[in-house]
Amino acid sequence: MSVSDYLLPVEYFCKKSLECGLLIESRQFAEYLSNNDELKYTRQEFHYPKNKALLEVDLNIVNGEDECIYFCGNSLGLCPKSLKSIVDEELAKWQECGQQGRYYGKRPWEHIDAFVIDQLAALVGAKPIEVVSMDSLTTNLHLLMVPFYRPTLSRHKIFFEEGCFPSDRVIIESQICSHGYDPKTSMIQAAAREGEYLLRTEDILQLIHEQGDSIALILFSGVQYRTGQYFDLQAITEAGHRKGCKVGFDLAHAVGNVELKLHDWNVDFAAWCTYKYLNAGPGGIGGLFIHEKYAFDKDLKRYSGWWGVEFKERFQMDNNNLPLIPGARGFVLSNPCVLAVASLISALEIFHKVGLIKVIKKQRLLTGYLEYLLKRNFSPGTNSSNYSGIFIDIITPEDVKSRGSQLSLIFSSSATEIYTEIKKRGVVCDFRQPNVMRVAPAPLYNSFVDVHKFIDVLTQVLLHLKK
Description:
It is found in: Cytoplasm. The protein is an alpha/beta fold.
């Protein structure tokens, strides 16, 4: 069964409401959904923060012993409980036998990165030969642009979205400059139409069609960090290839969050971080994908390192005949941080146990429930007049296939005050100037009751601001 086989959220809620005889907007209905959630047990796999540990919580308003409402997995996922034991195993090995930990135990260090490849490949829709865990997102994008951004006088432009995460723009500009070109004339940016927040797929494809002959590389986000829009990666890839462009994606907000089929879509390359929806910890090790069609291309330009050499040749130490490992692993420069990989192992074990399809099914229901309650309570034309006329608009796509766990909210006024007040009441989400609040209920550790509590907090805050 694929993700697309499931009912749409509203249909699901109507069906369940009839079954249990409860109103969709009631707290009892949220409890009913949570109690019957097939993934309700996975919350216990994580350390879930309490109000008393948060810096900006007002303990005169909320109980410090209560769990907060953590809707910030799009920035940093929660800590898996298994992480400490896995990391402790590697620390104990180091403590007991020093350098010889390379050779023995459940996870010999010299092969530590191999323990995550199959699960990462499954998450991004790839073959194991196409995936590796290494370095950080920005570093990996730079390394991938060595073979895939090869500008010429007639084809030197990079096509990307105007509102991309700032680090991507810095990467793009520095790569263009390093090849002797001017960012002012070597960048093409896709922008939303005036008065709109989302990029239309037809506008992206039209730009590629019109200017593709001058584009060397398309480097797009998988999921837009500010709006939560999941772009049509397959259509962008196909359009780029028709014009002879190389196509790659920054999947920071996409991996572990949306269904990906990088191999089948014929994507040239991609890179991601692991500390958001993959829950591998702050500064967690990154990952990259390179399509199998490049695996045995010996002429592919790249920066190479010792750890990308075939293992049996790596320790010959004669500096002769150092063949690179075919595929993505040939891009590894040096041995990965063992503790960082151990953290990723603990996080991926949870995904492996659950399966991405079930994760996305619940994600669509969580965001669908949040969307339903937001629209019912705070949309223009509802009872928003009870809150000094403040209303909330959702700028994330309505189509569940075009978004992940994040809903981005825009407030008609008082956005910063609202954000300040919800933090006092134990809500952890984040804010992007001037008026966007990003709310991301993550399916592995958030519940439908969390969503209902969030709506209650918003209601309390708007009533408080009305006084």
